[in-house]
Design a protein that fits this description.
Layout (H helix, E strand, L loop, with lengths): L1 E7 L5 H10 L3 E4 L6 H10 L6 E5 L11 H10 L5 E6 L2 H11 L11 H18 L2 E4 L5 H12 L9 E8 L10 E4 L20 H8 L2 H23 L4 E8 L5 H13 L6 E6 L4 H4 L3
Parallel strand pairs: 1-3, 1-4, 2-3, 4-5, 6-8, 6-9, 7-8
Helix pairs in contact: 1-6, 8-9
């Protein structure tokens, strides 16, 4: 039997993950009282042969019973029952925004500020997070990307490292992304904006890519950046970092930064040690503003 405890911060996507796992043939139970955990495991292991994959949702709604989760996990170990813990997390600012969009109260702070509830919840779930086999930060994940990460773990059984790397192109004139971990400025390269026939195109177009990459400095820069990232990622993983945002910026976020972000993504794409995605934050803003 494969037994997975699904937990995490309220608003980080636990319910969505449970629905996805149900589609993966898991028998899913959400918010079961923790004191019934051993009964569920005994039942699944001994009396119901069809329950070969079980996902149990546990979160802050368990209240004071959550303090006994350590005893329950030790009980499972004593019964020689293997289990995995999946922890869904997100940045505090993202969680607050999601709560404001849904107009819901936080379960640990009804009628109070959402950030107070988040603070309390992080303390309550700290033990479960420290024991987690898989930590997925959904701060920048689309629903389909979360599904892809879960399929890696629970269908394809790929080696999973708890780090999602986002390569993000942006324009300095629209501000540096607030969640950036590494910021690279590529405004030293010639700007296609000043070539009239190239101006309407973007770094997703071959003509822009050729214009930018024909400059020798672009290749040198990418080689050094790739080496830096290869050096840093294993160390971030060992330190328990879950989210890494590499921001590549040019003036408008349309030509040079998009080209180099795409190329870095292509070079890193063969790695299986971490999740990888790409975003172009400002690629369409000039068109929207009629420039």
């Amino acid at each position: 039997m494969r037994f997975v405890i699904v937990t995490g911060m309220s608003g980080a996507g636990k319910s969505t993950a449970m629905k996805m796992m149900e589609d993966m043939s898991f028998f899913c139970i959400d918010n079961l009282p923790i004191m019934l955990l051993d009964k569920l495991v005994d039942f699944a292991a001994n009396f119901h042969t069809e329950m070969q994959k079980v996902a149990l949702g546990i979160d802050a709604r368990s209240g004071e019973d959550l303090d006994r989760i350590n005893d329950m996990l030790e009980m499972l170990a004593q019964k020689d029952i293997s289990f995995e813990i999946l922890f869904l997390d997100a940045e505090d600012g993202v969680l607050v925004k999601r709560y404001k969009e849904t107009r819901r109260n936080h379960p640990l702070a009804p009628g109070e500020r959402v950030d107070k509830g988040i603070e309390k919840e992080r303390k309550r779930l700290a033990y479960l997070k420290s024991q987690a086999d898989y930590i997925i930060d959904t701060s920048r994940l689309l629903t389909r990307e979360l599904k892809s990460e879960l399929e890696k773990i629970f269908i394809r059984d790929e080696t999973f490292k708890n780090l999602m790397v986002t390569i993000l192109s942006f324009g300095f004139k629209y501000g540096i992304p607030s969640d950036s971990d590494i910021v690279m400025d590529v405004r030293f390269l010639p700007n296609p904006y000043y070539v009239e026939e190239l101006r309407p195109k973007t770094g997703n177009d071959v003509e822009i890519q050729q214009y930018v990459m024909q400059n020798e400095d672009a290749g040198v820069f990418l080689g050094k950046l790739e080496s830096l990232v290869e050096f840093l990622i294993p160390r971030y993983i060992s330190e328990g970092k879950n989210q890494l945002v590499i921001a590549v910026g040019c003036t408008g976020g349309k030509h040079r930064s998009v080209t180099l972000a795409n190329e870095l993504y292509r070079r890193m794409g063969g790695c299986r040690d971490y999740g990888l995605k790409i975003e172009h934050r400002d690629i369409g803003k000039d068109a929207l503003r009629g420039k």
